Amino acid sequence: MIQVLKGPVSINEQGATIAGFKLNNLNTENLSNGSLVELSGYNNSHSEFTVTYQQPLSNSAELELEGFITDLNTASYTFKLGDLTVQYQQADIDGALENNQFVEVEGRLEGNLLMAQEVDAEHNFTADDDLDTALFGTITFINNDTSLVTLNNQWQVSITDQTKFEDTTRATLTIGDTIEVDAIWQQANNWFLAHEIDLEKSHTSPNLSSNFSVSGFANYSNGNIIINGISLKITNRTVFEDGLTADTLSGEWLELEGLIDGQSYIVSEIERDNSNEPLELKGIVTVTESQQASLFGYISEDNSLASFTEQYVDLECQWVQDNIVRACKLDD
How confident is the model at residue 283 (pLDDT cuts 50, 70, 90)? Predict the structure, then answer.
């Protein structure tokens, strides 16, 4: 499913962006900072957009942008999409506005402000339930039991025992594979239910280090889940399992899976977990100021994390208490 963006591009020595998305494959030959353009393409990560078509727009054009809200200010009725400030005081708004929420915005540019006429914060797919849909894209996330995958870091696709496969299997789906999906949209679950998945192109060198997994006691604050002081972002693409909602997350032992985007953790799926089970931790082991190896704020009382410093790993650990673990080993 091709996306269309219409708005001002930011161009500097680091490259080009629109509404917070880094633009790949953009021809900047006749563009300057602030040029209005129409772009077609697709998201291939939380913060990147690959351009497949572009054309210039007039200064009076109606703009259509999408992105993730930052710097929400309810007193001034503004928020940002990347470095673009949106003024929404006179806009028709669907859904609740929060930081990290994915929104679609329509409006016109006045100076450096996008004066919004419509803001859709419900979900970026508007269709009737059970609508037959064909999706095409690259897998950017697969959860631990391959019951949920994400296409182009945008569409959540549920896989069941009834899902049929062509030229691939559930067990061999890989991050980076290009697939076509026949599915139906289920608004209540915030996902597409896959009837059939066809492999279009296999990816032999997947970027597996773009995914993370962590379990622990959680607190929720302003669109973020906090585990051991580590902040993980919830968006309106996040799938909540086990009857969970944002209001019921604090104090729960949860398993979170999602995407690593630069220095940010973007949560794709949330479900209840059991602290008596081995911790599944997938991410990059760092070093604290006290020179202890740490993964998602956990430190090991037996130094079993130390041998994995600065590595992306998929580990099983035993939880001891608070942020203390032991017996960490590679998950087979």
Answer: very high
128: left (phi over 0), alpha (psi -120 to 50) or beta: beta
Which position has the token pair 């500097």? 12
The label of the residue with tokens 């090991």 reads: 300
Q: Find, among 2, 1, 21, the residue nearest to 10 by Cα.
A: 21
C-alpha torsion angle, residues 232, 237, 240, 245 (rounded to 10): 80
Percent above pLDDT 90 for the chain: 66
Token representation of residue 182: 């026949």
3-state helix, strand, coil in the chain (%, to 5): 5, 55, 40
Three-class secondary structure of residue 247 per DSSP: helix
- pLDDT of 288 reads 93
Enter the DSSP assignment of 72: E
Write the CB contacts of 48 (distance below 8 Å, at least 6 apart in sequence).
21, 22, 23, 24
3-state class (DSSP) for residue 209 = helix
Considering only CA atoms, give the Rg of the chain.
21
Torsion sign (Cα): 48, 23, 224, 222: negative
298 phi and psi, to 5 degrees? -85, 140
Q: Which residue type does 57 have?
A: L
Distances (CA, A) of 55 to 6, 13, 48, 113, 134: 10, 22, 19, 22, 27
Nearest to 197 by CA among 226, 170, 229: 170
Q: What is the C-alpha separation between 324 and 148, in angstroms, rounded?
A: 30
Give the predicted TM-score (pTM) of the model: 0.77
Q: What is the average pLDDT across 195-223?
A: 85
Q: Which two tokens stand for residue 146?
A: 């391959």
Tell me how far CA of residue 20 lies from CA of 5, 10, 69, 258, in angstroms.
12, 9, 9, 20
- Summarised one tens digit per residue, pLDDT across range 68-82 is 899 999 999 999 999
